[in-house]
Amino acid sequence: MTLTPKDALLQYHLAERLKLDIMMIAHQFVTIPSLKKEEKAGAKTVLIALTDVLASDCEAAAKMTGAEEFNQAAAVLLAVIGLAESNQFGLASDKSGEAMTPITTVAAGAFAVLHEHGLI
């Protein structure tokens, strides 16, 4: 599918925002073990909820753009939730990084179109 500059701009914007959010979530998962015992359960709950929202954002991006890679990232993030629920925070962080690959693919394709049209 050939992207128009307008479609490329939307894909690029969504991909870059999602990449930043995924990096933030990945970092936060590794901080949970260092928290005080009474803080861990709340932090876990909040990060799982945020990861779920992020997966939903990926699914919405797929619907808006038609880029299946966003759904691939959402599937990875749902797996991250399972790891976090079983207190495997290091693995959850690592797995979060796997969601970056399909999103980066979208961003790179969109960037190429924007660059080709002199918009970046």
Present the secondary structure layout:
Elements: H1 5-31, H2 37-65, H3 68-85, H4 89-98, H5 100-116
Helix pairs in contact: 1-2, 1-4, 1-5, 2-3, 3-4, 3-5
Question: How would you describe the overall organization of this protein?
Answer:
With 120 residues, the protein is an all-alpha fold. The protein has one domain. Helices cover 84% and strands 0% of the residues. It has five helices and no strands. It has helices at residues 5-31, 37-65, 68-85, 89-98, 100-116. Helix 1 (5-31) runs antiparallel to helix 2.
Give a quick set of tags describing it:
120 residues, mainly alpha, 84% helix
Low-confidence runs (pLDDT<50, min 5 residues)? none
Number of domains: 1
Number of helical elements? 5
Distance separating the two termini: 21 Å
Outline the biggest β-sheet. Answer: none
Shape: elongated
Task: Give the percentage of residues in beta strands.
Answer: under 5%
What's the number of extended β-strand segments? Answer: 0
On the 0 to 100 scale, the average pLDDT is 96
- Cα gyration radius (Å): 16 Å
Secondary-structure element string:
HHHHH
Structural class: mainly alpha
Measured as a percent range, the helix fraction is over 70%
